[in-house]
Design brief:
This protein starts with 16 loop residues before the first helix and ends in a 20-residue tail after the last helix. It has 5 helices and 3 strands; from the N terminus they run ααααβββα. The protein folds into 2 domains: about 50 residues; about 70 residues, no CATH class. By secondary structure, it is mainly alpha-helical. Helix 1 crosses helix 4 and helix 2 packs across helix 3. The protein has a 3-stranded mixed sheet, covered by helices on one side. One of its GO terms (molecular function) is DNA binding. InterPro entries: CenT-Element_Derived, DDE_SF_endonuclease_dom, Homeodomain-like_sf, HTH_Psq.
């Protein structure tokens, strides 16, 4: 078998959307194509290709930024806030992969649209609100007498 002197192909590196946005911002700021190419270690034709597709790239970034999160807040007149409730669309987002969500400073919940439903509200009420309020009242030496004011939003159950 003959040996070839050919070197392996260089692994192609595709810039991320964030890098493409940075390139576009530098070009918009007046930096030359050659300077941007040197800065990012790419050839000028790659930078020009990014510039040509500017509208498409900016639209892609705008459409990926439509993330949703809901935060549940609850406090008393004295200013004491209980643990925040955080409702996200993913139960295990990549940023928290392998992390124990019970150790977060929020009460973590998830559903497909990150909307408060009767089920998620009741889950927050029983697993977070009651426990936090009991602990607070015990620390203050007070009886467990609580008034929770809730509006008539669709996610709040009628019978609580």
């Amino acid at each position: 078998m003959p040996q070839s002197d050919a070197q392996p192909k260089k692994q192609r590196s595709v810039p991320t959307l964030g890098e493409k946005l940075d390139v576009l911002d530098l070009l918009k700021g007046g930096m030359s194509v050659a300077s941007v190419a040197r800065k990012y270690g790419r050839n000028k034709s790659s930078i020009r290709a990014i510039k040509i597709r500017e509208t498409e790239i900016r639209q892609a970034v705008a459409s990926t930024a439509k993330d949703r999160v809901t935060v549940l807040l609850c406090g008393n007149a004295a200013g004491h806030l209980i643990k925040l409730g955080l409702l996200y669309r993913s139960a295990n987002p990549h940023a928290l992969k392998g992390k124990n969500k019970n150790l977060l400073p929020v009460f973590w919940q998830s559903n497909k649209k990150a909307w408060v439903t009767a089920a998620t509200f009741l889950d927050w009420f029983h697993k977070c609100f009651i426990l936090e309020v009991k602990q607070y009242l015990e620390e203050k030496g007070l009886d467990f007498k609580v008034l929770l004011l809730v509006d008539n939003a669709p996610g709040h159950p009628d019978a609580l």
